[in-house]
Specification:
alpha+beta; Outer membrane efflux proteins (OEP); 2 domains; two-stranded antiparallel sheet; 9 helices; 60% helix; membrane; Membrane protein
């Protein structure tokens, strides 16, 4: 949550007073997307929840104070079968066989109890260490989420630039076709070209119109996507006119040491190791201190006996208006020593060890896959660079061919159909080149992600 507040402060500090009037940069788009991300917000809430759990472990040794109160009405029949006894003087036999007594009373109990854990067998501090490493792993994985958002935003941003380049190519072709159409219509009027050749220009115009409609639809969708990711107004996004250039990276891009997954798994392994240590403490005694002050009262008590007085014959009933014990104090220290728990502690230790092995296996597998992904990303980046060079050469050749075709068309050395073919070849070469540049930039960003170095500072 603190990192999100830092990003928010940075955004407020940016000169974006005219965000609704100026086109945002790629870095600003990425920052806004990171700040808005619901998945990152939930991940940070998960971390906050774990921190609350960590705080509860630290508070294990704080005293607990509770107040209790109870009231009960007792009404019971007591059956007594004891050896017969005769009362002296009264000559009354007691407990002659089974005797039944009727008892009735009101019971009042209240107390305040304070207890404090003095020693947990070292389990609490070790569980705290395990949670510290777990939180560390979650914090590291936030960086992976941020990099994924940066990649998503930069992809949409580059797609906008690609569409912008496509629009420029189409506009240039449209202007040249307008000039060519006027020339062809005059030539057709003089009978110098056929209707077939004139129709070639109409077909080229229709193709351009279709591509223009496709461009507008894709651009509108991309702007909506960026708006959904960043909440930046659509009119600001519509003002973006980013020029597409190849992204150059150093030859030695490093390894996977900066990948957040590796550091997160290392932290997870440490967390599970501390969990093993915590489970091993199941046999260590735990000590607790206890203090209590209470009130115990009995009111309206009565006991009906089956006996009668020898002279009057009145039944013998015993009663108590009030019996009270207050204040009643108790202070002491107790311990619990689990001498044998039915092997449950041993099973818990074994399960914790299995989790350590699983985490180590996941770390090894992740390292192998990330290294393979790095090799793949490096290969794709090198191939993309070669394709940029080839695409540039093809574009230059098509441009020269188009220039020659324009000159020869003006003096009538080639037919309009051949001139249109040169225009089409140039269009396709230009569109292919910008697509190759877009692919090269994506390959560069994937390589940065493969090394864990895709940060806001690396955006280009």
């Amino acid at each position: 949550m603190k990192s999100r507040l830092n990003i928010l402060f940075a955004l407020v500090s940016l000169p974006l007073i005219g965000i609704g009037q100026e086109a945002p940069t790629l870095a600003q788009l990425a920052e806004r997307a990171i700040l808005k991300s619901h998945s990152l917000a939930n991940a940070e809430l998960d971390i906050q929840s774990e921190r609350e759990t960590r705080s509860s472990i630290k508070e294990t040794y704080l005293p607990r104070v509770e107040a209790n109160g109870k009231f009960a009405h007792l009404n019971t029949e007591v059956l007594v079968d004891l050896p017969t006894t005769t009362l002296p003087i009264l000559n009354i036999q007691l407990f002659d066989g089974n005797e039944r007594f009727q008892s009735r009373s009101n019971l009042w109990i209240s107390d305040i109890t304070a207890s404090a854990v003095l020693f947990t067998g070292t389990k609490a501090p070790k569980l705290g260490k395990a949670l510290d490493h777990k939180i560390r792993a979650q914090e590291i994985m936030l960086e992976k989420g941020r990099q994924e958002i940066i990649d998503q935003v930069s992809t949409a941003y580059d797609q906008l630039a690609l569409l912008r380049q496509v629009q420029l190519v189409l506009e240039e072709s449209s202007r040249r076709l307008d000039i060519e159409k006027k020339t062809a219509e005059k030539a057709f009027g003089y009978g110098l070209i056929t209707s077939y050749e004139l129709n070639k220009i109409a077909v080229a115009e229709a193709t351009l119109a279709a591509r223009q409609q496709e461009y507008e639809g894709k651009r509108g969708l991309l702007i909506r996507q960026l708006h959904q990711l960043t909440d930046i107004p659509v009119d600001s996004l519509d003002a973006i006119e980013h020029t597409l250039h190849p992204y150059s990276l150093a030859t030695n891009t490093g390894g996977i040491d900066n990948r957040p997954e590796i550091a997160a798994l290392d932290a997870a392994i440490e967390a599970n190791r501390y969990k093993v240590q915590a489970e091993r403490t199941h046999w260590i005694p735990q000590v607790q201190a206890l203090a209590r002050v209470g009130y115990y009262g009995l009111t309206d008590g009565s006991l009906k006996t089956p006996y009668t007085l020898p002279v009057s014959g009145q039944p013998i009933h015993l009663g108590a208006n009030r019996l009270q014990a207050f204040p009643s104090y108790m202070v002491g220290v107790g311990f619990r020593w689990n001498l044998f728990d039915g092997l449950q502690g041993k099973r818990a230790v074994n399960k914790a060890r299995i989790e350590v092995q699983k985490a180590e296996n996941e770390r090894q597998e992740a390292e192998e896959l990330l290294n393979l992904n790095l090799v793949k990303a490096q290969t794709e980046y090198e191939l993309a660079n070669k394709q940029v060079v080839t695409g540039q050469t093809r574009l230059n050749t098509a441009q020269k061919a188009l220039d020659i075709a324009q000159k020869e068309s003006r003096v009538g050395l080639i037919k309009p159909a051949e001139r249109i073919a040169a225009e089409t070849d140039y269009q396709q070469a230009a569109l292919d080149y910008y697509q190759v540049v877009f692919n090269q930039r994506r390959a560069a960003y994937r390589l940065l992600m493969a090394t864990g170095d895709l940060t806001l500072e690396k955006l280009n």
